[in-house]
């Protein structure tokens, strides 16, 4: 059992939890993830390690409530326990001095961008970060990103905070004005696709952190397969970080939609049960 030590509501849909998981915290590296299961009937969901403290033995996760399991997790509180918390999984990011690195984080992807930017800064890189969200209330960790970046740009799609536009709007300007040695992008698949198309035009190497549907996280079920350079790769063991110029993003986008109907039904059933329970206790 893994105890939730702290819960923080970052935005109405995005929550942070600090989990007591000393063995995971001791081995964690930037770029890796965990797979957790709330209870013995729960599904296994992958979440990136957003931060970790080997001395305190804690791992921080940040998740967006998109369906049944993330919503159930969001309802848990400090003091509650999670049944399984397996990790660190996936390959770590290469932590070396590339020169000038631009870290791009979109939406909940800001969370996994943070440990990467921090590790790259510690490795001696000049780090420029660009973070963006749909609107001001969906933005978080600006302060933490600023701490690990030489320069930070903030965008919102609706212009309610920072610069109006997408993260790629700012990235294009940076690529035109400065020499960039590497771009790292984490966020929605469409954002990573657009970033990779842009950096390809400018000839700048690009890493992306993929988020296909996963089940076992051990390379056995084949659920998380993606095409990279025309070759089949399993994101859980070969990734999640890949060369953005080699990923078949259109295939990834369509594979992510495979279980849309089932996911919708699971969420509707869960919300109906919750509403019934709430009505019962209100009586
Ligand atoms: C390596 C990796 C790291 C991730 N890190 C984060 C993170 O740090 N924060 C965060 O908010 N989300 C992260 N995700 C996505 C997260 O796993 C899904 O949002 C979650 O599984 C949704 O579960 P649900 O039951 O709430 O929603 P569902 O109703 O089951 O699904 C809603 C959507 O979530 C995605 N999804 C569903 N099941 C899975 C699954 N088993 N694996 C991957 N995606 C799934 C699908 O695109 C689906 O359309 C990550 C995914 C991967 C693969
Ligand atoms: S999640 Fe099963 S092979 Fe990767």
From TrEMBL:
- Cite the PROSITE patterns for this sequence: FAD_FR
InterPro entries in the record: Cyt_c3_hydrogenase_gsu, Dihydroorotate_DH_Fe-S-bd, FAD-bd_FR_type, FNR_nucleotide-bd, OxRdtase_FAD/NAD-bd, PyrK_electron_transfer, Riboflavin_synthase-like_b-brl
Chain ranges of the FAD-binding FR-type domain: 1-95
What Pfam families does the record point to?
A: DHODB_Fe-S_bind, NAD_binding_1
PANTHER family linked: DIHYDROOROTATE DEHYDROGENASE B (NAD(+)), ELECTRON TRANSFER SUBUNIT, DIHYDROOROTATE DEHYDROGENASE B (NAD(+)), ELECTRON TRANSFER SUBUNIT-RELATED
Its protein name is Sulfide/dihydroorotate dehydrogenase-like FAD/NAD-binding protein
């Amino acid at each position: 059992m893994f105890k939730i030590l702290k819960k923080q509501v970052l935005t109405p849909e995005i929550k942070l939890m600090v989990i007591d998981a000393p063995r995971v915290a001791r081995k964690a590296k930037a770029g890796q993830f965990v797979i957790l299961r709330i209870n013995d009937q729960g599904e296994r969901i992958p979440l990136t390690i957003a931060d970790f403290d080997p001395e305190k033995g804690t791992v921080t996760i940040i998740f967006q409530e998109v369906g049944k399991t993330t919503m159930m997790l969001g309802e848990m509180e400090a003091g509650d326990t999670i049944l399984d918390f397996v990790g660190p999984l996936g390959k770590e990011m290469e932590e070396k001095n590339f020169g000038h690195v631009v870290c791009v984080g979109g939406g909940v992807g800001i969370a996994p961008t943070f440990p990467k930017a921090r590790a790259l800064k510690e490795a001696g890189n000049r780090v420029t970060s660009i973070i963006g969200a749909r609107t001001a209330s969906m933005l978080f960790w600006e302060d933490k990103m600023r701490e690990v970046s030489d320069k930070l740009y903030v965008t919102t799609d609706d212009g309610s905070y920072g610069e109006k536009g997408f993260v790629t709007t700012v990235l294009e300007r940076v690529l035109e004005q400065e020499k960039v040695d590497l771009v790292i992008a984490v966020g929605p698949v469409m954002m990573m696709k657009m970033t990779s198309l842009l950096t390809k035009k400018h000839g700048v190497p690009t890493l992306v952190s993929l988020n296909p549907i996963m089940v076992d996280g051990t390379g056995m079920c084949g659920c998380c397969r993606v095409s990279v350079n025309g070759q089949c790769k399993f994101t859980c063991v070969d990734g999640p970080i890949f060369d953005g110029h080699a990923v078949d993003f259109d295939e990834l986008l369509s594979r992510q939609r495979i279980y849309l109907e089932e996911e919708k039904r699971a969420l509707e059933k869960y919300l109906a049960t919750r509403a019934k329970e709430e009505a019962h206790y209100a009586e």
